[in-house]
Structures are given as C-alpha cells and as structure tokens.
Write a structure and sequence with these properties.
mainly beta; Methylamine Dehydrogenase, Chain H; 34 strands; 7% helix; 33% strand; globular
C-alpha cells in the first residue's frame, strides 16, 4: 500500500513537471511569435540589426522639444535648463545661447536664424553665430507657462503662442503684427501649422489669416454646437479642451490630418470640414504628429503602443507594436509624443520612451537600439542618413542610419522639414 502511494506521488510530481514544462515552452513559443501579448517593449527577435552610434553629446537638462537642422548641417536643440545648443555634424559644440527654460524645440528661418520660446514666453531670434538679434514677449504678458507647442514660420513671419493668443511676429524686426485667439488649452497642446493657401491652423482646429482674423473654426472644437458626435466621441472630455493633441500633417491638395487625445486620428478638408476618423484605444494620449509618405500613406504613433499605417480613405494598412510609454497623468494609459519620420527608401524611424526603432513600409521592425533617459522629443534626419535623437536625460545622439535622408513627400517629419517650419508645400 505504501509503495503504491509513493508511486502515485512520484507520478503526480512527474506530471506537474511535464505540465509546467509544456506551459513554459508554450509561453516561450507564443512570446516569440506574438511578443506584444507579454511585453509592451519591441520584441528582441524582430531586431535584425542594430543602428550604430556615431557620437553622443551630453547637454545640461532634459530635451523635450524637437531637434532642428540647418542647411549647413548644424544641429539645434533646446533644453529645459535654458541652453540652446548648436552642434556640427561631428558632434562638436559650436555655441550655446542662454534663453531660459524651454520645452518647445527650435525653428530655423530661411536665412539660418534660429527662433526659440522659453517657458515664460520670451521669444528669441538668434543668428547663426549664436548672437541675439531681438527678443520680445514674456512677463507681464506671459500668462501661464509655455508648453511644448511648436511655432511655424514662413519667409516673413513667425507664428507662435503668446499670452493665450497666436502672435504673428515679423522676422526682420521682432515686431508684433497681429494676434488671433487660440481657444482653450493650446499653449500645452498642438503645434502651429501653415496650409498651402497661407492660412494658419492652431488651437485644435481653428484657422486664421496673417492678420489674425479667424477664417474658419471646425465645429469639432465648439462644444455649444454639440458636434463631438461627428466622430463618435464618448462623453469623456479630452485632456485639453479642444481635443486636438498634435500638430497637423498636410497632404497633396491640402487635406490635413491631426491626432486627438483619447481618440485617434481625423482628416479634414483645407476648409476645416471633417472627412473621416480612425479610432485607436481611447485610454491613451495621442500627441505625436502624423506624417505622410509620397504614396499618400499616413503614419502615426498612438498612445496604445502601435505605429499605424493608414490609406488615404482612413482604412488601416497595418499596425505594429512599438511599445507603450506610460502616462504620468493617468495610471495604466499610454502616451505618444515623439513624431515618426520617413526616410528616402520608405523606412519609418520612431523614437519611443526606450529605443530608436526602424520599421519597413510593410510594417516589419528592421532594427532597434535602446536609449537611456527616455525620449519624448521628435528626432530629425540629415541628408546623409544620420539620425539625430535627444533624450530627457540630456543626451544628444547621432546614429548612422542607412536608409537615406528625408523622403520627398508632402509631410515626412515633425513640422514637415528639417527647419521645423510647419509650412505645407505650395501644391
């Protein structure tokens, strides 16, 4: 009897070991085939190659605004501790300029001048040598602190938030030309964009002309009209009152796209009329700008951890899991702030909280490289294929990309071009 009991115990133990082994092997197999079921990070088995580091520069303070690149190859970055950095293509420091704490990135004019706005809404124009040309704004006109909103620029004017309005500033003198009401929540929300007809899109989906007159206002951001139902939003209010989380991306013909908090992406006509929408998980913060490929494909990174590829009618081509960045505002939700960019051969680069990722036009992860300090700023791409990324830890890193410079498309990166002009091509 005792012997039979012992044999039964041995059989039970062996059975448990067999079941446990099968479970472990099954988990490993599933994780290898579908890693997103167990991890929000990019799967290691999808990494076909690394992206070599060319050089790294240590800046003081976090860099949250987008990087900008001058025509001469100078890289510009703005830090939260107050310095504007100018680096050459080898990572050598050319100069620094003290502008006060900055969350938004630099914008570069056609003459090479650099424009930045600090958190107190002082606006600075700096020449290529790092010398002050003019400054305007600031207290007592600042109102609440400036967020990560990027300015837009054309040949004559800078369009930037100041004291709850969108100010038009003459580049040559720093003179205030006009202002337009920005609505609610804009100073920490979507970036400024310029449509092909010269109208400036701001504060959710408002558009004004250069004189500051509002020329259209989409009802999506006008609560009294009760038109949130146009895109089937729930009663849950977005983080900013307008709902628009990103700047715009403008396609051929003037159709433009923007992402929305807790929602996804929407398309509009040049006149601000709603066309269609694509929904992602509602419990995410979608603040990264869309980009547009030469064939019209729309790419955007969402807070649900996916990089999405959409057709021009809003149907989905594919989605690839690139990792969720935890939101500091809401537990259990994700946030997307860094805008993807498109290389010449169609490769999509994306910097998320933990890594730089290269994805093929078919939605296959080609390479990843980890980045310490997390990344919320948007990277940029030099004509020789070098990828520049900046982290909240203050690191500015140059990666040796092998996919060429920016794609020749309507809107291949944050604020469209290397200068971060936010200006659409005159189609």
């Amino acid at each position: 009897m005792k012997q039979n009991v012992k044999l039964k115990e041995v059989r039970d133990i062996l059975l448990y070991i067999l079941i446990g082994s099968a479970f472990l092997i099954g988990r490993i197999y599933i994780a290898a085939r579908q890693p997103h079921l167990f991890s929000a990070k990019p799967a290691a088995h999808l990494v076909k190659s690394e992206i070599p580091v060319k050089w790294q520069f240590a800046a003081r303070g976090a860099i949250t605004g987008s990087l900008a690149l001058g025509e001469d190859g100078t890289l510009y970055a703005a830090s939260e501790l107050g310095s504007v950095y100018a680096l050459d293509a080898t990572g050598k420091l050319r100069w620094t300029f003290d502008a006060g704490s900055m969350f938004a990135g630099p914008t570069v004019g056609v003459d090479g001048s650099i424009y930045v706005t600090n958190r107190d809404q002082h606006i600075f124009a700096i020449n290529r040598a790092g010398e002050l040309q003019w400054t305007v704004g600031g207290d007592p006109y600042a109102g609440r602190p400036m967020g990560r909103t990027a300015a837009a620029i054309d040949q004559n004017f800078l369009y930037t938030p100041w004291h709850g309005t969108l100010r038009t500033i003459r580049l040559s003198t720093g003179t205030l030309e006009s202002s337009a009401d920005m609505g609610f929540g804009f100073e920490r929300g979507a970036s400024v964009g310029i449509l092909p007809d010269g109208r400036i899109v701001h504060s959710g989906v408002f558009a004004s002309d250069r004189s500051g007159i509002t020329v259209w206002q989409n009802p999506l951001v006008d609560p009294p009209l009760n038109t949130y139902s146009l895109i089937d939003l729930t009663n849950h209010l977005p983080l900013n009152d307008s709902g628009m989380g990103s700047g715009i991306a403008v396609a051929v013909g003037g159709t433009f796209y923007a992402t929305f908090h807790d929602f996804g992406l929407a398309a509009f006509t040049p006149g601000g009329t709603f066309l269609w929408s694509f929904k992602t998980k509602l419990d995410s913060i979608n603040s990264a700008n869309p980009v547009i490929a030469a064939d019209g494909t729309i790419y955007f990174a969402a807070g649900d951890g996916n990089l999405n590829a959409l057709n021009i009618d809003g149907t989905q081509k594919w989605a690839v899991a690139t990792g969720i960045c935890d939101s500091p505002l809401r537990r259990g939700s994700g946030i997307a702030t860094s805008t993807p960019m498109l290389a010449e051969d169609g490769t999509i680069y994306l910097a998320n909280c933990t890594a730089l990722i290269a994805v093929s036009p078919e939605g296959k992860v080609l390479a990843t490289v980890p980045i310490a300090g997390s990344v919320v700023s948007s990277p940029t791409l030099a004509p020789d294929g070098t990828v520049y990324v900046a982290s909240q830890g203050g690191a500015i890193i140059a990666f040796a990309g092998t996919h060429g410079g920016l794609m020749n498309s309507p809107w291949p990166k944050f604020q469209r071009d290397l200068a971060n002009s936010g200006r659409a091509l005159p189609f």
